[in-house]
């Protein structure tokens, strides 16, 4: 599939390598994922969303846990040198943004809260 078809079918946002809708994973065209060496990480990321869905976490918590599980949070920390957000409502807003740079701030902020937390709280609603 070409990138435009992927965007139309999945309702993905610009910069998304994949997204999940109703337990179905929509991948951007494989040539892009393989070129960027991201296929394994993206599949693990989306499978983590499917596994966590039953817990009905807030968006920020689910994304933070997914980034923790996949190791993507550590990679973001190394590449993004920004002040993270502490306000979870604002983090949710950033994660829903159509602007990739705001989503990245949201992802890193959500990961930072999860990383610094007592991991037992992750599975309490």
Can you describe this structure?
This protein has 125 residues and is mainly α. It has helices at 3-10, 30-35, 39-52, 59-70, 72-79, 88-95, 100-116, and strands spanning 18-21, 24-27. A hairpin with a 2-residue loop joins strand 1 (18-21) and strand 2. The model has no long low-confidence stretch (mean pLDDT 88).
User: How much strand?
Assistant: 5-15%
Based on Cα principal axes, name the global outline.
globular
* Gyration radius from CA atoms, angstroms: 14 Å
Please give the share of residues in helix: 55-70%
What order do the SSEs take from the amino end to the carboxyl end, as H and E? HEEHHHHHH
Q: Return the average pLDDT rounded to an integer.
A: 88
Structural classification: mainly alpha
DSSP E strands, number = 2
Largest sheet: 2 strands, antiparallel
Low-confidence regions: none
- The order of strands across the largest sheet is 1-2
Distance between the termini: 38 Å
Count helical runs: 7
Question: How would you briefly describe this protein structure?
Answer:
This protein is mainly alpha-helical and 125 residues long.
SSE blueprint:
Blueprint: H1 3-10, E1 18-21, E2 24-27, H2 30-35, H3 39-52, H4 59-70, H5 72-79, H6 88-95, H7 100-116
Antiparallel strand pairs: 1-2
């Amino acid at each position: 599939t070409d990138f435009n078809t992927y965007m139309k079918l999945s309702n993905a946002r610009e910069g998304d390598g994949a997204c999940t809708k109703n337990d179905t994973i929509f991948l951007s065209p494989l040539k892009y994922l393989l070129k960027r060496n991201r296929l394994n990480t993206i599949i693990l990321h989306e499978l983590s969303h499917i596994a966590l869905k039953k817990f009905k976490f807030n968006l920020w918590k689910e994304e933070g846990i997914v980034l923790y599980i996949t190791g993507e949070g550590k990679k973001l920390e190394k590449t993004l040198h920004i002040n993270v957000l502490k306000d979870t409502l604002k983090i949710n807003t950033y994660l829903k943004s159509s602007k990739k740079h705001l989503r990245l701030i949201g992802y890193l902020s959500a990961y930072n809260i999860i990383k610094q937390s007592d991991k037992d709280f992750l599975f309490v609603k």
